[in-house]
Amino acid sequence: MSAQDFEASAGPAFPSVDRGRLVSTLGLLLGVALLLIFVAAPLVTIFLKSLQNDTGTFVGLDNFVRYFSSAGLVQSLFNSIQIALTVTVIACGLAFGYAYALTRTCMPMRGLFRAIAMIPILAPSLLSAIALIYLLGNQGMIRELLFGNSVYGPIGIVLGITFYVFPHVLMIMVTALSSADARLYEAAEAMGTSRWRIFWTITVPGARYGLISAGFVVFTLTITDFGVPKVIGGNFNVLATDIYKQVVGQQSFSMGAVVGLILLFPAILSFSVDRVVRKRQVAQMSARAVPYAPQPSKGRDRAFFVFCSLVSLFLVGILATAVFASLVTYWPYNLTLTLAHYDFNAVDPNGWSSFTNSLEMAAWTALIGTCVIFLGAYFVEKADTLPFARGLLHMLAMIPMAVPGLVLGLAYVFFFSTPTNPLSGIYGTMAILVLSTVVHFYTVAHLSFVTALKQLDKEFEAVSASLKVPAYKTMLRVHVPICLPLILNVAIYLFLNAMTTVSAAVFLYAPDTKLASIAVLNMDDVGDQAPASAMAIMIVLTSVSVKLLQVVVTRSLLARSSAWRQRDPG
To answer: Partners of 328 in the beta sheet?
Structure first.
C-alpha cells in the first residue's frame, strides 16, 4: 500500500486534532469558570460586604473608620503582628538549627529526628494548645517553669503556634541546606578560614532565600491561625479571634468582613514578597558542582544531637501530654487511666458522627481535589490553545495561597448564603466544606502538578498527535503513570489537611456536618478538655494510619503501573 493510500484509508487527520483542541479549550474555560466562581467571586463579595452595614446599605469606608477608631480592635492588630514576629524568629531559628543538624552533620538517629519533626502536621493546631494547658496551666504538671507567669496569653500562643509551624519551616530549611557545592568549603578550608567564618560567609548566604521564604511562611501561618489563640489566648485578642467574635459572637458581619480584609493584607504582602524572593533566587548547584558530604566531628555532632533531642522532646512531649490527658479520669485529682473520654456520645450531641463526617469530607476532598487540580494543571501546562486562558487559570490558582482560611470561610458565607445565588443550595452541606477545603489548599497542589508536568518533554504530545492518539489517552497512559507518586502525595496532602483544618470550616459547618476538628474546639469551649484531647488524638491516629497506608499502596501501585521505572540489570 502506498503512503497516499494509507493516508486515505486512515481518514482526515484534522477532525481528531480539532477534537483535541476543542477538549483543551473547553477544559481551560471550565477551569477558569470554576476558579472565578469559587475563588474570585467570594473574595469580591467580602470586599463589597465591608463597604455595607449589617442591613446591606452602602456606607463606604465607615466600617474601616469605625474599626481603626476602636482601641481594642487596633490593639488586636498589633498583638497579631507581635506574635507573628516572635514566632517567626523562634521557629526559624529552631528549624534552621534542626535542618543544619540533619543535612550538615553526622549525628546519629537523623532519620528518627526527621520523622519526629513531622508530628505536628498530623495533628490539628488546637492539640498543642490543649496540651500546653495540661503542662503549664493553673494546674499544669510543670507550671513552675513559667515563674509565676500565665500560659493564657502571648506565652501560650507563641509556644502552641511554634509547635504547629515547625515542620512547615523545617521542610523549607532542609531543602535550602541540602544544595551545597563542596568545592566552596574545600577552598575555604584550604585558605585556613575558620568554621565560624565559613558558616557566615558560605552556609548562611547559600540558604538566605530559604530563610526569607521560611520567614514569610511562618509569619503568614501565625497571623492567620485561629485554633491556638482561641483555646489558650485568654484575654489576649488577635485578628483571627476578632473575626470569630465579630461574626459568631456579635453577629456583625460587616465588621467581620473588615477584619477579614485587614487579615488578608499581611498574607498578601508575605506572599508577594516571597514570590519576588523566589524569582531572584539563583541556582546553588552548577553542572560541575560536587555535592557536599559532611565529615564526622565528635564535638559538633554531639552538640547537635543534644539540640535535636531537646527540640524533639518538646514535640513528642506535646503529643504525649495530649494522649495522657485523653486517658486520665479527672486531672489532676484522679489519675486513673480510662477510655471513657473516647465515648463522645456522652459529651457531644454529634458524638462519633463528627469524626465520621471528617473522614467523609477528607475522602471527598482528596478524591475530587486531586482530580480537579491535576486536570487544571494539565490544561495550564499541556494545552496548546487559548494562551490568555492558560495564564488566567494559573493566576487564579495562585490566589488561595494568599487567602487565610478564616477569610475564605467568611467569604463563602457571604457568597453562598445569598438566596439569589443559584448555588445557595450547597450552603450548610458537606459539599461546601469539601469545596472550601479544596480551594484552601489548591495552590500547593497545583504548583506541584505544574512542576511535574513541566518536566515531561512535549515530544510525548507530538508523537501522540502524529499517531492520531486522542489527548485523553495520552494523559491516562503517559502523564498519569509518570506522575502517579505525586498524585498519591497530593491526595494524602489534601486528606490530612482536611482532617486537621479548622479555620474555614468554623463558619461553614451545619449541625449535621460538624467535623472532628470543630468538635475539639466546641468541647474545649465548654470545658471538656479531656474529650477534646481524645478527639484530637483520633485525628492524629487517623493521619498516621493514612500515611502508613500510603506507603503500602504507593509501593503496590508503582510495582504494577510503573515497571518502566526499574532498570533491567541485563
So the answer is: 337
Any residues with CB less than 8 A from the CB of 137 and at least 6 apart, and which?
Answer: 143, 151, 152
Residue 426 confidence class, pLDDT cut points 50, 70, 90: very high
What mean pLDDT is predicted for residues 537-547?
A: 93
Whose grid coordinates read 468582613?
A: 257
Examine residue 57 and state whether it is found in any structural domain, yes or no. Answer: no
| CA–CA gap between residue 343 and residue 241 (Å, rounded) | 29
> Are 334 and 346 in a shared domain?
no
Kindly state the cell numbers that stand for 455.
518536566
- In DSSP notation, 307-346 reads HHHHHHHHHHHHHHHHHHHHHEEETTTEEEE-SGGG-GGG
Which residues are CB-neighbours of 452 under 8 A, at least 6 positions away?
A: 482, 483, 486
Q: How much is the pTM?
A: 0.84
Enter the DSSP assignment of 478. I
Same domain, residue pair 310 and 348: no
Residue that is written with C-alpha cell 460587616 in the block = 254
Mean pLDDT of 396-418: 88
> How would residue 310 be classed by pLDDT, with cut points 50, 70 and 90?
very high
Q: How far is CA 428 from CA 275, 360, 425, 497, 514, in A?
A: 35, 15, 8, 20, 10
Is the CB of residue 119 less than 8 Å from the CB of residue 316?
yes
Determine the structural domain holding residue 438 and report its residue range: 15-46+340-562
Three-state SS for 43-76 is HHHHHHHHCECCCCCECCCHHHHHHHHCHHHHHH
The answer to whether residues 153 and 233 touch, using CB atoms and an 8 Å cutoff, is yes
Same domain, 318 and 433: no
| 48 grid coordinates | 463589597
Strand partners, 330: 334
Same domain, 163 and 212: yes
CATH number at residue 112: 1.10.3720.10
Residue 397 shares a structural domain with residue 497: yes
What are phi and psi for residue 335, nearest 5 degrees? -95, 15
| Range picked from 14-23, 454-463, 498-507 for highest mean pLDDT | 498-507
- How many Å apart are CA 52 and CA 88, to the nearest integer? 35
Would 372 be classed as within a structural domain? yes
